[in-house]
Amino acid sequence: MRSVSPRKTRSRTAAKPVPRGKGAPRHRGVVLGRGKKDDDGFVARMKGAAVAKLKAGRPMLFLTVGFLGFVAIAALFVGGTVGRAIKSVTDGVDAVVADAGFGIANVDIAGNRRTSKDTILAVLNIQKDQTTLSYDIHAAQARLARLPWVATVSVRRRYPDTLAVSLTEKHPFALWRTADSLFVIDRAGHVIAPTNGLEFRKLPRFMGEAPAGGQELVAAIASHRAVHARVWAMRRMGGRRWDLILDDQVVVQLPEEGWQAQLDELEHLLIDTGVLERDVEEIDLREPDNYFVRRHDGSQQTLPRGNAT
Known about the structure:
- This protein is of the alpha/beta class.
- The protein is about 40% helix and about 25% strand.
- Strands 6-5-4-7-8-9-10-11-12-13 form a ten-stranded mixed sheet. Strands 1-3-2 form a three-stranded mixed sheet.
- Strand 10, helix 9 (about 260-275) and strand 11 (about 280-285) form a beta-alpha-beta unit.
């Protein structure tokens, strides 16, 4: 009897060619050039396509997730959750720092004469347990600078527990009476504050239009002793010239140009001619050659310059 080797039998079986033609079995797998099915390659390509689709969708995924995160954070802020949490932490830190000796316990104020201490403290608005470290001195300075009398101001920390406030106040130059109010003004004619006039009754007075350029007129009047003693108020007319109102309500009309020289003429009239003793209502100094004097009875007298007797 003849024996058969298992190895040889297997080799013959493995070497048997795959039948082709009509009777050959059909396979659904991808067939390579040599005719073998490539199931592993097919799966790998499918995985690659899925990964490519996932990568292509990542930007939109990230945008969606980011938008949802932004909405959630915004909702926390709008709802006050984050703000309350931050305030709670800040208050806690301030309390600890205040207990350590940095709580604001003193306010030193210098330079205030017409701005009361109570007003300054109210504007500083120092809260309970607020510390010198956390207090916003720049915002406090800006608030104080808006007070009527404050020209300049500085707020400084003086550790551990003091705020130092130093003011320079505006200088009152004159009073300005409008139709229904009385104001203190500075040299530029800017309003400082309303007033009842009692504290500033010795200041020069303006009436009518805003007194732009009034400081020059005040200085010129001060250099004429008789005029200065009699002038009660000054009135701007048409934004161009001045009227002087004397203490007995006599109106002196000055010209638009050369009014400084006419103060010399008025000084002469008051001292040398006694013009105010003639029941005068108005003196017109606007003409270069003559004076015009109008009396309370309506009569008018024309006097050549240099002959006003």
